[in-house]
Specification:
single chain, about 300 residues, alpha+beta, Jelly Rolls, seven-stranded antiparallel beta sheet, about 40% helix
Length: about 300
């Protein structure tokens, strides 16, 4: 076999292996790293800031109280989603819009719902303002608020960044999230792919090689209702398919960004590139996790 053909063959084997590992990452049991981040009892501001800086993700346990969770289920927007069930026409009539098959977003809330949600976010604002401090040049603000409903049998999202620049996403499920009903899958440490606040932006602005070295497998945020997964907006992630045959998976999404770096910060071309990069990093991380577990 010629050297050129050998390289092509080896490249093909590696690519097929990474694709298989990326698919395996969605259905395997939770690994040790996932359990450490999701199950950590060190729910302090300092610890969570440290996790966000190093891993790009942390979990806030009981971000919403049981009373607050019940209040969410009494909102007009939540009631509209419950009444619509899986009827697409009814969801669209309630002002939900579809991003991927079976995944519906609501960004327009009544005054009463908006006031209630503003009260809820007070519990995690210290984390937001600490991670996204105001500088002489700019400050952070809430850039988006959504009720996201993943219907039964909804499909996977593709890997993406919420913003190419540093920000925060706070995602709060209103039901317990399991491997079956479609957790958010994140790639810890992938937030170092692009420059953060105050960092120099290179012409390429994509640290692929260093991310390949740092990535250590994916994390699926299987958390109880009312807890929150918080991640740097640059962290590559996707919502997995809801395989539950009956129940939807509703979550609240609060987004925070700097005034001078509005989301998403990506072109169509870079979105496609980062989608493919997410799949590669996911497969590579699974490979490294497997090797680590062996040794």
């Amino acid at each position: 076999m010629s050297p050129r053909r050998a390289v092509k063959y080896a490249s093909g084997v590696i690519l097929v292996s990474l694709v298989a590992l990326e698919k395996y990452s969605k259905r395997r049991a939770l690994n040790i790293k996932e359990q450490e981040i999701v199950g950590s009892t060190m729910d302090t501001l300092r610890h969570n800031i440290s996790l966000l800086e190093k891993e790009g993700v942390c979990v806030l346990h009981k971000a919403i109280s049981s009373k607050g969770l019940e209040g969410c289920k009494q909102m007009e927007s939540f009631s509209a989603a419950v009444e619509a069930k899986d009827k697409i026409v009814a969801l669209k009539a309630a002002k939900f819009w579809q991003s991927t098959p079976g995944r519906f977003h609501l960004q327009s809330f009544s005054n009463e719902d908006s006031e209630f949600l503003t009260e809820l976010e007070e519990s995690w604002m210290p984390l937001v303002t600490s991670y996204l401090p105001t500088t002489e040049d700019t400050s952070s603000h809430r850039s988006d608020l959504q009720l996201l409903v993943s219907l039964p049998q909804s499909k996977d999202q593709f890997f993406h960044q919420d913003n190419r620049r540093q920000g925060l996403t706070v995602l709060i499920p209103l039901v317990n999230v399991t491997l079956e009903n479609g957790p958010t899958q994140l790639l810890p440490r992938s937030h170092h792919l692009t420059a953060g606040a105050g960092e120099q932006v290179t012409s390429m602005d994509c640290s692929i090689l260093s991310s390949m070295v740092e990535v250590e497998g994916s994390m699926r945020a299987c958390i109880p209702a009312g807890s929150a997964v918080v991640y740097d907006s640059r962290t590559l992630h996707r919502g997995l398919a809801n395989a539950d045959p009956v129940e939807s998976r509703p979550v609240l999404v609060f987004r925070y960004d700097y005034d001078d770096t509005p989301p998403p910060g990506h072109t169509v071309t870079s979105t496609i590139l980062f989608r493919a990069l997410g799949n590669i990093l996911c497969g590579l991380g699974e490979l490294k996790q497997g090797i680590t577990n062996i040794f």
